[in-house]
Amino acid sequence: MRRSLTGTMGALIAVSALTTTAWADGVDQLPANEKKIYEVVDPQVPLGASAYKDFKPKKGPPWKIGYASSYAGNTWRAAALDAVMNDLLPRSKEAGLVSEVVVTQSDLKDAVQIQQMRQMVDDGVDAIIICCSNVTALNQTIEYAYKAGVPVFSFSGYVTSPYAINGAANHAQGGGEMATWLAEKIGKKGNVLLVSGIPGFASSDSFDKAAKEALAKYPDINIVGEVAGKWTDQVAQVEVQKFLATNPTQIDGILTQGAQENGVLNAMLQSGRDMVPITLGGEASAACYWRQNPEWIDAGFHIWPPRREMQQMWEIMLRTLQGQGPKVQSFLRPVLPFTIDDVRAAIPEDCDLNSTDFVEPKADGWFPSAIADQYFERPADPWKPVAQ
Amino acid sequence: MSATAFRQVTQDRSLYVPAGLFLVLLCAVAFRGQGLFTNNGLAGAILVATPLILTALAITPIVMAGRGAVDLSVGPLMGFVNVTLITWLVGNGITHPVAIIAWAVGLGAAFQLVQALVIIYVRVAPIIVTLSGFLVLSGVNLMVMSRPGGVAPDWMLSWGAGTSVFSPVLLLLLGAFAIWGVLRGTMFYRNLRMTGADERMAYTSGVQVDVVRIIAHMVGGVFAGLAALSYTALISSGDPTQGSTYTLQAVTALVLGGASLSGGRGGALGSTLGAINMFLISYLLSTFNFGTVSGFVTQMAFGLILVGSLLVNVFVISRRTVA
Predict the structure, then answer these.
(1) How many domains does chain A have?
(2) Where in the sequence is the signal peptide annotated (chain A) (predicted)?
(3) Which end of chain B has the smaller Cβ count within 10 Å, N or C?
(4) Is residue A288 in a domain?
(5) Does A181 share its domain with A273?
(6) A230 & A196 share domain
(7) Minimum Cα–Cα distance from B159: chain A residue
(8) Are A198 and A283 in a shared domain?
(9) Interchain pair B235, A136: CB under 8 A
């Protein structure tokens, strides 16, 4: 027993020593303005140096890409998939970079996702994209892929495996910023309802953790309830309705994660209560309500714009496959606030309150190539056509 | 063993459909590509399918005992063993294989013992008891571990690599079959089938139906413990919520394997075939690229295959009763 304890301690010390050196190698290589994004971060997000610094693909281009999606049932996933099939893939095909994208769905079952990823590796794909999955369950499979020369890219969420490359907004920082905005907006005091995403999922937990920490700094703000909206408008609407119907307490503001705020908004509208500030994450439907009621709030936040996050990961993937050598394991983006003017520019006056689309940053606004270059050892334009 | 299995299939009509579907799926998978029939492909299949096979096995003796006892708690129970193993044991430096395996099997059996006692002595319908078990454990799991994390013990990490067919995970599976094989030869097994087919008649014939039910639950608990071990090996960590998804899959595998939810009929071979078939359906569907509509097509195809084979199954079995 004692022996195993000493063993564990030794291992722990060794691991912590390793992480420190790895950190120095990874994030410290970034320029100061980028390093700032990594200051408030979920401690589970791996910040070491990438395992793909000297990576060369087995063959190609053109490459065959696997997209092992874990869920298909909400507007956000649909927009992300649409970005691949109708924008990124055609453009990459034209440049001779990618030949095919294989898409699978695992309906939130990790075991099925593991099987599908292994199948992709055995089937000879050159890279795998996954989304915001369970942070640890896929690690063995990611290592399996790594050993077969297939890098795994996790977008809009991280996995803890050292053999994966993560790309997302800094969801912890986002949760903190959105919570702080709401707290200031309601005058630093009052009752707040928290609408979480899918508890147990990487981005959802990072957001909640930092949001609660930020609200804890305001002693007069109480979190009076916490419901899970599953990043799906309909679910969020039902959950918030249930909460409002059973809790007559005054609510002064609702802090919700992105991609479900329209459900929250509808629940508030149906409840007959006076409208309160709600955090917006970029859904065009809720943004439309804002456009029609400009006095309602003063800012929204691009926290996980589906098309841009997918594009960011896609470009990181192209660069990695081109042997540009990523410096870090996790590419974090700051959460971008947007104003009513951005909304006015993005959607028309007679906008649709039931739209399933998103208001997103401009194509080069989320992960500009000048900044992306700083994340790679041997930067180059990822979209440069291949001579055929 | 395979000879016995073959004899069983040819003799037991309820196994016709699962066995037939198995062959059809195997041919279809072979036709779609050779990936599954390589060392890595098979190793991965065993790794991924074992937790489902074992959870299907875990609910088999319980459903066989009758009273419509579908054990809904099996998924969260597997999750409960998984998170306690990672948080309480490994988290406190207890990583010895014997301790880990004993904990998993013991905890599974102990929980099922409690459920059996409630069913028998409080006389609540089994489905209500196991549904309560499902809900309670789903909550408890999140209390033990609020989000996925932790690491499996060092010796278990290599189990999840899935690069060799003859892995410890396969041993878990064979171990479970061995336990079942031994049970089949005992008086308990005959009493179990009698109890499930007609509890009153079994009682008047002198079968201690309560004892039979308790043993059935505890055997199921042992299998649930083994399932949790294979699941922990698969994800090499702890996860408080994923276990719940296994309940529905295990019940589907059970029915697909020809067991009757009203009791009396069922067995390890049927449940195993049912679980393997579910894996093969999922594998087969993943070989197609449905592009943007993949989510809906996959679920629809999965559902259609299930409904189709269940219909055929009902037809084949009901003909037996008529004849």
Answers:
(1) 2
(2) 1-24
(3) C
(4) yes
(5) yes
(6) yes
(7) A140
(8) yes
(9) yes
Q: Considering A281, A302, A323, which residue would you say is the last residue of a domain? A: A302
Q: Distance (Å, rounded) from C-alpha A156 to C-alpha A177?
A: 18
Q: Give the distance from residue A69's alpha carbon to the nearest chain B alpha carbon, in angstroms.
A: 9
Both A201 and A70 in a single domain? no
Q: Are residues A57 and A135 in the same domain?
A: yes
Is A348 inside a domain boundary?
Answer: no
Q: Which domain holds residue A159?
A: 22-169+306-333+362-373
Under DSSP, the state recorded for A272 is T
Give the closest of B40, B279, B290 to A122, CB-based.
Answer: B40
- Token pair in block for residue A193: 């309802």
Condensed to tens digits (0 to 9), the pLDDT of residues A175-221 reads 999 999 999 999 999 999 999 998 777 788 889 999 999 999 999 99
Q: What's the pLDDT tens digit per position in B150-203?
A: 889 989 988 888 888 888 999 999 999 999 999 999 999 999 999 998 899 999
> Are A176 and A154 members of one domain?
no
For B:233-262, CB contacts with A below 8 A are: 234-242, 245, 249
Residues A202 and A244 in one domain: yes
- Test A136 with B237 for CB contact under 8 angstroms: yes
Sheet holding A253-256, edge to edge: A221-228, A190-196, A253-256
Residue B273 corresponds to which tokens in the numbers above? 């075939």
User: Are the Cβ atoms of A82 and B299 closer than 8 angstroms?
Assistant: no
Last residue of a domain, one of A280, A302, A324: A302
Q: Chain A contact for B171, CB < 8 A?
A: no
The single residue listed with the structure tokens 């909460």 is: A243
Please determine, for residue A10, whether its predicted confidence score (pLDDT) is greater than 90. no
Inter-chain CB proximity B147 and A205 less than 8 Å:
yes
Q: What is the identity of the amino acid at A374? A: Q
ipTM associated with this complex: 0.90
Confidence of residue B255 (pLDDT cuts 50, 70, 90): confident
The rounded radius of gyration (Å) of the Cα atoms in chain A is 21
The reported pLDDT for the residue numbered B3 is 72
The stretch B257-283 carries a mean pLDDT of 88
| pLDDT given for residue B319 in this prediction | 63
Q: Do A28 and A159 sit in the same domain of this protein?
A: yes
**Amino acid A388: pLDDT:** 57
- Say if B53 is an interface residue toward chain A (CB within 8 Å): no
Residue of chain A minimizing CA distance to B231: A111
A330 pLDDT higher than 50 = yes
B150 and A CB contact within 8 Å: yes
| Pairing mode of beta strands A127-131, A164-169 | unpaired
Which CATH number covers residue A82?
3.40.50.2300
Q: What is the DSSP letter of B185?
A: T
Identify whether the C-beta of residue A181 lies closer than 8 Å to the C-beta of residue A213: no
Furthest-apart CA pair in chain B: how many Å? 61
Instruction: Encode burial over B24-59: b for 16+ CB neighbours within 10 A, e otherwise.
Output: ebbeebeeeeebbeeebbbbbbbbbbbbbbbbbbbb
